[in-house]
Structure formats: C-alpha cells, structure tokens
Write a structure and sequence with these properties.
With about 550 residues, the protein is mainly α. The protein has 28 helices and two strands. A hairpin with a 2-residue loop joins strand 1 (about 320-325) and strand 2 (about 325). It is elongated and about 80 Å long. It starts with 12 loop residues before the first helix and ends with a helix.
C-alpha cells in the first residue's frame, strides 16, 4: 500500500473537520471547472510555455536564465514535467493551476486556525473559502503563466505553517522552494517577524538569529532577481514611483472590498503628478492607512498584523510599474498572497463583533455566493485571447498592447483587414510600438508592398534593436529580393539575439539552399526541428534529400 507523506504538523482532518477540506475542494471546482476548457493566452504563455524551447526537455538551463525578467526555475520545471507527460494540452495546465489554488486554500485554512488561536474551524474555513472564490484571484488561477504566483504562494504558505509549528528545517526548505518559484516569496522574512509580534514574542537577539538563514537566502535571491529588473527600476523618478505606489495600494484595497471592473491590464497613460485627483486622493488615503498602522501598533495588534501583512507582501509588486516603456499601476495576481492580510482582518472583526454563528453563516454564504458568481463570470473573459484583449479595450481603450495582440492574433488567423486596423490603431496610440511595426510590415510584404514592408521592419529595429522577429523579417525580405548575403547576416543577427527562435534557423537554411550550400541547409533544417519538433516545412525539406 502507498502512503501519502504529509508533515506531521498539518492538523489531522478530524481536528478541522473533513467537511471543511471537502467544501474547499468542491467550491474551488464549482467556481472554476469551466476553465478546464479554456485555451492558452497569447500573453506570456507563448514565451513561458508552448513556444519555450527550455520547456520541451529537462534542460538545466532553467536555473541560469530569466523569463526574461523573473527568475522562476521551479515554475519552469513544472512546465517541463507537464510537457513530458501530456505535451501542450491546455486542459491539464489549467487543471494543475486549479489544484494548486485549492491546496493553497487548505494550507490557509490551517494557518488561519493557528493565527486566530481557535480550536473551531468555522472562521478559518470562511477565510479559506473567501480566498478560493475572491474575483481578484481569478487571473492567478486561470492564467497558465501565473503558475509562478500560485506555486510560490504554495511554498510560502507551507513555510509559514512550518514556522507556526516551530519546524525550522522544513520552513527553510519550503522557503527555498518558494524563492525558486518566484523571488517575491522573500516577503516571508518580514511576515515571520510579524507573526512573532502577533504572538507577543519580544524582538531579541535570539529571535533575529533564528531568522538569519532566511535573511541569507533572501539576500542571495534578491541579487538574482534585481538582475532582471534593472531597466524597470530606472524608468521612473522617485516621485512618480511614490505616487504610483500609493495609487496601487489603495487600488488593491478597493478591489479586495469591491472586486468589479477587473482586467488583465491596468495601463496608465496620463501624467503622474500629485495635483491630479487620480493621485491626490490615493495619497491621502494611503496616509490614513499609515496612521492606522501607527495607532494599532500598540493598541490593536491583530489589526496591525493584518494591515502590515498586506503591505509587506504587496511591496515587491511596486517594482513592476514600468514594463517595456509602458506604465501599469496594478496586476490582479499581485494581490494573491497580500489578500490574506485583509481576509484575516475580516475574520478578526467577525470574531470580535460577537455575531451569532447562524448570522455569520448566513452573511458568509451570501458573500461567498456573490464572490463565486463574480469569479465565474470574470473567468469567462479568459476563454481565449481575442475575448480577453477585447475586454481590456472596453475598460482601457488606450491599451495599445491589446491592439497589438489582437492585430497579431488576426494576422495568424488570416483576418488581414482586421489585423491591419488593430495594428494601425496600436501605432496611433503608441508610435514607438516596434511589435506593431513588425507585424504591419509582414502584412504589407505579403500584399506585395515590399518597400512599405521593409520600412516597417526597419522602424521596428530602430525602435528596439534587440527585437529578433524584425531581424528575421528583414532577412526574409532580402532573401525574396535575391540579396542572400544581406539576408544571411540579418538572420544571424536574429539568432544571436534569440538562439531559440526556430523560424530564424528555418529561413537561414532556406538562404543556404538558394545559394547551393546543401550541407549548411540540412544542418539548419535539423536545428529547426530540434527547436520546434514537427515543423512541417522543415520536415518536408529534409525529406527531399
């Protein structure tokens, strides 16, 4: 007989109630089971999963690369395992996400029971169920690329539970696994100090020393993480950073209470100045939050713990406002772990309000049904890329990245006129959109407008010389003109920028074939198949020899 190995400090099902665990599983399934029929999304999913060369085999390179910004080797390892056993079937990737989310809720159930210092499982169960169904968590659950937040959250919660049960070695092990999933798990360090504070433990040399292994690991992984974030950190002034931080914190608090109008993107295209009402009010409200922290430090430890937990676990997301020259003030998935602090505050309020159990159950059911329906409805916009990006445009019409993605999507589907309309709209919103230039150039070249196409490719490279697809298209353009030497150099430039781009090797093989170098052509067709097994054109060419 096989026996599932579970840490002994996990409370036995009897102590929490078998019903509690079953309810968590059933509710998670009831809300999110339609997601199992959803597709991958054309945002991060190609780079991280189905077009990621490192995922197609058990390559150790995942431990020496970024994604391109984040260091997430353990997350990539889960993709490698899935690819090895099930290939690229979205259903199973979504299923794994859902399983991890359910497991996180059950870990939270155990953690809340310890933090609330209660033998009852009613309030902890309510907190775990709110965590399961909260609409702000939908993005984290249904987006395959958000696996890093789910997985890091899983080991973060296991490490915290280990600490609560004084299991030091297990806690450090789970902390390492959390950091390898996503470095934002570093916030566990201040959370451990907050737990000591909540439990009335004084800050002593011994308490600090006991956390030195966590601090050492945190220092190492912080250095690794900053290696992928340097450009983003320098894109904003200190004043802009502070204003966006205030706006972001208040935004998440608002959405945790009233989770409406959620979106995968929250772009900001207006000036970032204090005199704007969009920033003045959040700054004032943030000051209120700070004053609450100061007041509750001595008088309301529970309240201080909940607010501080929310703020310290949210802090790493404040390094991500700037992305590729654009500003985004929030992302739903960043509130996944921080929401626990606010859920804890709600449970504390219920416990201190002396409400009767029947009242708590009635209000809890109403809240859970409301959130569950909202999450179910919001998840529907994730069923495919087209619906998702159209949803963004209904809420943020200035989101040029949505126009770019729709243009690329329609281009791949052969809906050329729609693709052109969205790509031109993207360039209207952001004239420096190198991806839109590249895709529009491809369309013009296919339409026989070679000069116009080349102009778009050149514009793309001028705007971003490291954008490999534009170099590939320049190579293809020159190959069509018979300028094979120029085409060869352009394609080699693309390969230097992205050594895993199969299409660059395929087109370079075509150049060598045209020049009569069959040996080099065969080698590059073989390289194409190595990077993209099943590439039909490469297979067909190799079969001709």
């Amino acid at each position: 007989m096989f026996k599932l190995l579970v840490p002994r400090y996990l409370p036995a099902p009897r102590s929490l109630g078998v019903v509690g665990f079953l309810v968590v599983i059933l509710v998670a399934g009831a809300v999110y089971y339609p997601v199992l029929g959803f597709d991958f999304i054309n945002l991060d999913d190609p780079q991280l999963v189905y077009q990621n060369y490192l995922v197609r085999s058990f390559s150790p390179k995942i431990f020496t690369t970024y994604d391109p910004e984040l260091y997430i080797p353990l997350t990539l390892l889960t993709y490698q395992i899935e690819h090895a056993f099930i290939g690229l079937q979205p259903l199973y990737y979504h299923l794994v996400n859902l399983i991890i989310h359910g497991a996180n809720a059950m870990l939270l159930l155990c953690i809340l029971r310890k933090l609330l210092r209660t033998d009852s499982w009613l309030l902890p169960l309510l907190g775990a169920l709110i965590f399961v169904v909260h609409p702000l968590h939908t993005e984290t659950v249904v987006w395959v690329s958000a696996r890093k937040d789910l997985l890091s959250g899983f080991f973060f919660l296991f490490a915290l539970l280990s600490y609560l049960h004084n299991k030091k070695k297990a806690g450090i092990l789970f902390f390492v696994l959390a950091l390898l999933s996503k470095v934002t798990a570093i916030t566990l360090i201040p959370v451990l100090f907050l737990v000591d504070f909540l439990q009335g433990k004084p800050l002593t040399r011994a308490s600090i020393t006991s956390k030195l292994p966590y601090m050492a690991l945190g220092t190492v992984f912080s250095g690794i993480a900053l290696g992928g974030k340097t450009e983003n950190l320098s894109a904003l002034s200190i004043a802009e950073f502070v204003l966006l931080a205030c706006k972001s914190v208040i935004f998440y608090l608002q959405k945790l209470v009233v989770p409406t109008d959620l979106s995968i993107l929250y772009p900001w295209t207006e000036p970032i100045v204090l005199l704007s009402f969009d920033f003045m009010l959040p700054v004032l409200l943030f000051l209120v939050v700070v004053l609450m922290l100061v007041f509750t430090w001595q008088h309301k430890k529970d309240v201080f713990f909940g607010l501080a937990f929310f703020l310290v676990t949210l802090a790493p997301s404040l390094l991500t406002f700037s992305k590729a020259g654009d500003v985004y003030f929030a992302s739903d998935r960043y509130a996944y772990i921080p929401s626990i602090g606010i859920i804890y505050l709600l449970l504390i309020w219920i416990a201190q309000s002396r409400l009767r159990s029947n009242t708590v159950m009635t209000l809890g059911v109403i809240l859970l049904i409301t959130f569950g329906v909202a999450s179910r409805n919001h998840s529907q916009v994730w069923r495919n890329s087209e619906v998702l990006f159209l949803d963004v445009l209904t809420k943020y019409p200035q989101a040029h990245i949505s126009e770019e993605n729709l243009g690329h999507l329609y281009l791949m589907d052969g809906r050329t006129e729609e693709a052109v309309a969205h790509l031109e709209r993207a360039l209207t919103l952001k004239s420096t959109s190198f991806a839109a230039h590249n895709n529009l150039g491809f369309i013009r070249m296919m339409q026989g407008q070679y000069r116009t196409g080349l102009a778009h490719f050149q514009a793309s490279i001028e705007l971003n010389s490291a954008y490999a697809p534009a170099h590939v298209n320049v190579g293809v353009w020159h190959a069509k003109q018979g300028d094979y030497a120029i085409a060869e150099q352009a394609l080699k430039n693309a390969i230097e920028l992205d050594p895993y781009m199969a299409q660059a090797y395929f087109n370079l093989a075509g150049v060598y074939l045209k020049r009569g170098d069959d040996v080099s052509a065969k080698a590059f067709y073989a390289k194409t198949l190595e990077l993209e097994p099943g590439h039909p054109d490469a297979i067909r060419q190799l079969q001709t020899w």
